[in-house]
Design goal:
By secondary structure, this protein is mainly β. It has one domain: Neuraminidase, CATH 2.120.10.
Length: 309
């Protein structure tokens, strides 16, 4: 049975509890709620619950002279994000050559910045009203079905204020088999928990919402409480955080029309509520929380690949 962006099936999934993070796997605390995370080479970029700033924290696991791979408070730096006609709630970015594309969680605005100094190049808004249903064995949906879907998306967008989009992660090029970069977007829009965004092959900031993807077996609370997304290419795994249950739901990605839940990860009970997740290039799992944990005095944590997979 398919309803909105969900396909409800009778299935059983495996649960796994993450170990409590060691002090060396907890970053220096950020004094505001961590709403977004990006790990880019030797730095962790943290997006606090603030409309125009990100915090850059050095990160080097090769440094054996200290007990933590994170740089201390003295090495943290604040990067102001400005220049957009519509100041956004910036939650993450992806690289585009010598530039980065920062995305916003309210209207899915993209802001292109120069990597060297984070100066603004341009801003664009991703159009939503060209979305189509996921392809199935019958091919494209009818004109009437497409029209109904677009009307529903507009209604969901208008009825929700604040953070509508919770996460963005790029899928491998061979997953959908067409030119250009593509990204999965986790959302809090009712009936649209997962969207597929397509971008121009020559301009990764020229994007549009291409498809509504189908999640099979997702928990009922996930859509309204989604808190970020990560992708593991090796396992074709999609991870979506659920702040309601403080868990991470794991799905197997076959195609946009078939994303099946296989398991879920329990975040340690003693950690605060998850606000965002990220999977880096080495498949480390990162989470950011809403408040600082008093036991390890941090709101940024990570687990190595072998710990969570």
């Amino acid at each position: 049975m398919v309803l909105g962006g969900y396909a409800f099936v009778v299935s059983s999934v495996n649960a796994r509890e993450l170990p409590f993070p060691a002090p060396s796997h907890a970053g220096m605390p950020v004094q505001l709620k961590v709403s977004g995370l990006v790990v880019d080479k030797g730095d962790v970029f943290v997006f606090p619950d603030s409309p125009s700033v990100m915090i850059k924290i050095p990160f080097d696991t090769r440094n054996k002279s200290t007990t933590s791979p994170f740089g201390g408070l003295a090495l943290q730096s604040r990067v102001q994000i400005s220049g957009s006609a519509n100041p956004g709630r910036w939650r993450g970015f992806y690289s585009m050559g010598e530039q980065v594309v920062v995305w916003d969680s309210t209207i899915l605005q993209l802001l292109v910045l120069q990597k060297k100094d984070f100066s603004v190049v341009r801003s664009v808004t991703v159009p939503l009203d060209v979305v189509k249903p996921a392809l199935d064995r019958g091919g494209e949906a009818s004109h009437l079905e497409v029209k109904r879907l677009r009307n529903k998306l507009r209604g969901s967008f208008k009825s929700l204020k604040g953070d509508r989009f919770s996460g963005l992660a790029e899928i491998p090029s061979d997953w959908e088999g067409s030119k250009g970069r593509r990204f999965l977007i986790s959302t809090r829009l009712s009936g649209f928990p997962l969207l597929l965004m397509a971008c121009d092959p020559d301009d990764a900031a020229n994007c549009y919402i291409e498809r509504q993807c189908q999640l099979h077996g997702a928990s009922p609370q996930l859509n309204a409480h989604s808190a970020g997304i990560g992708i593991n290419a090796e396992k074709r795994a999609i991870l979506i955080a659920n702040s309601f249950s403080n868990t991470i739901e794991v799905f197997k990605y076959d195609r946009c029309g078939s994303v099946q839940k296989t398991s879920f990860l329990k975040i340690p009970n003693k950690l605060p509520k998850v606000e965002t997740i990220y999977l880096d290039a080495l498949s480390r799992l990162w989470i950011g929380t809403g408040v600082i944990d008093t036991q390890v005095e941090s709101n940024i944590f990570f687990w190595e690949k072998g710990t969570w997979m």
